[in-house]
Input
Amino acid sequence: MIDSELRLIELELKYPERFLSFPEDHKALARWNGKPTELLEYITPLQLTGKFLKPSGEPMAFSDIVRVFEAILGITVNKLYETKSRLLARKKNVTPFIDSMKYALMEEAKKSYL
Output
């Protein structure tokens, strides 16, 4: 039993993001008003470009980044990898949500700065 506890401590030191915990009464810091697929479309390029890092400086795993967003937003994304696979298998438009964000940003820039 002591060996198991020591192994858990070693893993927690090596992969602290896997041991993120929030108190039972933790409330979401924000609310997601979109579809889970849209959230994964947003998270996937962040993970692929290495924008989220572990405290050690290594890139975070996709599932760990999703856990962070789930905790912030107080939601659960079901069938994580299945949804990501469907997202990446899109034939015509792989990034409709990102495209809509880009359009919204460009429109705001036109209104505010032109």
Observations:
- The helical segments are 2-14, 36-48, 62-73, 80-88, 96-113.
